[in-house]
Specification:
alpha/beta; Rossmann fold; OB fold (Dihydrolipoamide Acetyltransferase, E2P); five-stranded parallel beta sheet; five-stranded antiparallel beta sheet; 17 strands; 33% helix; elongated
Length: 248
């Protein structure tokens, strides 16, 4: 059984989640519930559990406040939240699962299935440490979780020069190497647009600070600081120029 605690400050949402787990996730045993950070600490400290289902916003703080006060974090996490851009971006950068309210049974069972599959792995603590790091770090020190076949690698976002799409794969170009990930360029555009990246073409996402010059000739193209030349698509030209003007 997957011993689970739930932090949720709305009674109706808590009851609904417990009903979903009872009906669709028979391998989950709820061993404790709490409605606040303080209650959550009392619920968790001294208790052994495998999974925490965490509402991001609680009555007296956030799930992140709860996490930073725990003496140990050797359990799996699934966050539950209404749409909150900051929280979701931090969670996604750290490759930790989250569910959007209202929770759908299919999404819940999928997330629980991932936890079960990871129980034999040892990556969750590194994901959690990365989440807490990114929540507290200055923009220049934030990192991105890159899932690979045999590991999860955490790289500094500032070290990414550009991302190149290739169907359902993305090549992440660093100064000394290339990493290929089984995710679309659209997914990385959503993750990195607020971190100083601009989509210049169907296949190219570029870190703005790595751009050396924009040339108007030949329909418009960029020259990067490493010498790479990339065309700017016609329908993205004005958007790219606007983003470049923002950083002047």
């Amino acid at each position: 059984m997957l011993k689970t605690i739930i932090l949720e400050d709305e009674a109706n949402n808590l009851a609904y989640l417990q009903d979903l787990l009872a009906e669709y996730c028979p391998n989950v045993e709820v061993v404790g519930t709490a409605t606040s950070v303080a209650d959550g600490l009392r619920c968790a400290v001294g208790r052994s559990f495998d999974l925490a289902l965490l509402d991001v916003e609680l009555k007296d703080g956030s799930a992140f406040d709860w996490l930073t006060q725990l003496p140990a974090t050797d359990f799996h996490l699934i966050f539950i939240t209404a749409y909150d851009h900051y929280a979701i971006q931090a969670i996604r950068h750290s490759a930790i699962d989250y569910l959007l309210k209202p929770i759908q049974a299919e999404d819940l069972t999928g997330a629980i299935g991932k936890v079960k599959a990871r129980q034999q792995e040892h990556e969750e603590n590194s994901r959690l440490r990365e989440l807490l790091h990114n929540l507290e770090a200055e923009p220049e020190e934030k990192r991105l979780a890159i899932p690979q076949k045999d590991k999860i690698e955490f790289i500094l976002i500032r070290d990414i020069i550009r991302c190149q799409g290739d169907g359902n794969y993305t090549h992440i170009l660093l100064p000394d190497r290339k990493i290929t990930v089984a995710k679309t360029l659209r997914e990385y555009e959503e993750l990195l647009s607020a971190a100083g990246f601009v989509r210049i073409h169907q296949s190219h996402l570029v870190q703005i600070r790595c751009i050396a010059a924009y040339y108007k000739q030949e329909g418009g193209y960029l020259k990067l600081r490493d010498g790479t030349r990339l065309s700017v698509s016609r329908h993205r030209r004005e958007y790219v120029l606007e983003r470049l003007r923002e950083v002047q």
